[in-house]
Amino acid sequence: MGKCDGRCTLLVICSLQLVAALQRQVFDFLGYQWAPILANFLHIMAIILGMFGTVQFRFRYLIFYAVWLVLWVGWNSFIICFYLEVGNLSQDRDFLMTFNTSLHRSWWMEHGPGCLVTPVLDSRMAPDDHHVITVSGCLLDYQYIEVLSSAFQILLALFGFVYACYVSKVFQDDEDSFDFIGGFDSYGYQPPQKSSHLQLQPLYTAG
């Protein structure tokens, strides 16, 4: 029952991670955030691999999933520092998120709760095929929405890491105990020998 509880809890965590990653992927696509899009895609693949390892009792897949979660926590920590402009990070370098292929920023910048977007006409600051806008009245600025999203991802990753390590340890202990009990052990399996019920009878010949 303990092993089932750990597996079920890990599957629930993976399901929440998958839903959160798909939701984040949609908004990153809308904002043309190519670096987060690539990271989200890898994260989705790692989640699916972790769910497969949980269902199929593959502890090596769970170890890979746990290692990826460490990298995922690091990536989301960078996003938090980026939007909060920690250290030398600045949102003026927001093109890092788009691989310098576009001038788009976070989708939440213009579509946050309560945001009012006003286009600035005849602005000389706008490059070709672009326009300048002003955003006001937002109940929550877009950088804080991105920070909260990354913080939620980190929270799920921490729970996933703990349960992945626990379940993989249970799987490994079960394999070791199975070998110790004698399932296909080093002595090999010896099929039972058929016993012969034939009896030898003396042969008499007429003299």
From TrEMBL:
Q: Which Pfam families match?
A: NKAIN
GO annotation, biological process: regulation of sodium ion transport
- Establish whether keyword Chloroplast is in the entry: no
Q: Which residue windows are transmembrane per the record? A: 34-55, 62-86, 147-166
Predominant place of localization: membrane
What UniProt keywords apply to this chain's record, in alphabetical order? Cell membrane, Glycoprotein, Membrane, Transmembrane, Transmembrane helix
Similarity remark: Belongs to the NKAIN family.
Whom does it interact with, and what assembly results? Interacts with atp1b1 C-terminus.
Instruction: Name the chain's protein.
Output: Sodium/potassium-transporting ATPase subunit beta-1-interacting protein
- Please name the source species: Pleuronectes platessa (European plaice)
